[in-house]
Amino acid sequence: MGARLTDFDFELQPDRIAHRPVRPRDVARLLWVQTKDGVAGSGEAVGHAGPPPSHQTKRDGGNLTMSDRIVRDLPDLLRPGDILVVNDTRVIPAQLIARHGNARIGITLNQPREEGTWHALARNARRVHAGDKLKFDGTSEMSAMVLARDQNGGVILRFDQQGTEFMQALHQNASLALPPYIPRPHGPDNADEMDYQTVFANNDGAVAAPTAGLHFTDALLTALRDRGILQATVTLHVGAGTFLPVRSDDVSHHNMHAEYGEISSNAAQAINETRARGGRVVAIGTTSLRLLESAVDESGIIAPFAGQTSLFILPGYRFHAVDLLMTNFHLPRSTLFMLVCAFAGTEAMRAAYAHAVATGYRFYSYGDASLLHRYDL
Predict the structure, then answer these.
(1) Pair 110, 241: CB distance under 8 Å
(2) What pLDDT does residue 5 have?
(3) 274 in Cβ contact with 83 (< 8 Å)
(4) 53 with 132, same domain?
(5) pTM of the model
C-alpha cells in the first residue's frame, strides 16, 4: 500500500483560517523554509547577511531553518537573475442557481470543454438528466442544456450564449465560487470581487484563484524588477475540483482533476535561458509548479504547452522544473499539502506547519504564505 491519507493530516484550529486578506497584500507573513540542501541556494550565499535580528529564525538540528518574514521581503530572499513564474488566470463568476421545474440546483462551473460546453459540479444532480433544459436565476436570461451527467455529481452543459456574451451573462447571473472555508452567508461581497483576484489576472477561465499570487502588489513587483529578478507568465485555469477532498485511504488511488494550461514559447524560452545562466526558477503557487512540471523533460528543459494536466505530485516525485516554491498554507489531507511535502520534504513540512500553527500564521486562500526550497531526494 502507498502513502496513507492520515500521513498528511495535522490539527488546525478554526481560528487559524483567514476570512479576509491582510492589507496591503504584501505585508502578509512569509515563512522562509530551507532544508540542509536548500540553504546553499539561499540569498545568504550571495553576500547577504541573512535575516536581520528583528526576524525570528529557528533551526532544527542543523537540517532545517525557518525564518519569519513578510512577503515584502521577497526581493531580499531571492537572487538577481532568478525568475518568477506567475499564473495570469482570471477568476470568473462560476456559482449559479439553476431551476428545472420546481427543483433548485446549485451549479459550479468547473472547466470549459470543446465546442463551447462546460463541465460543472451540481448539487441535486440526481434531479437532472441528459436533455433537460436549465434556467438560471439572475438579472438576464440565461439557460443551458444538460448533455450528460457523470456518477460524481458532474454535468456537461451547453449554454445558450458563447464568448463575450456568455461572459457578460455570467457577471449578471453568477457569483464567485469562494472556497467553502470562507464563510459568506449572503454570498461574496464587493471586497471579495477585488480580493479574490491577483494582480496578474488577465485570462478568464479560473473558478478558484491561484492564491499565492494574491500577495503581490505593483510596488512589490517594482522592487523585484529593481533587484534584477525576472518574470515569466503562464496560464493554468484552476477548476472547482481543487476543493474536492481525497477520499481514498491509499492516496495513490486518488483521481486528480484535470485543468487546462498554457506555456507560450516565449515563456518557455525565458525560463530555459534563466536556468542555463544559473538562475533559479521560482514558482508562484502550486498551479504554476504543476504546469511547469507537466511540460519539462528530465534534463530540465521546458517545452511550450497547451492542454490538460492532471499531474498528481506525491512524496517520491522528482522535480525537474522548479527550484523554489512560494505557496499559501494548505488544508490537512489535501493534494496540495501532499505536493509541498514532496517538494520540501515531509518532515520539514510537518515542522513548518507546526511552527505556523503555534505562531499564529493565517491559513488557506486569504492567509499567509511560505517560501520553500526544493529538497532533492
Answers:
(1) yes
(2) 82
(3) yes
(4) no
(5) 0.90
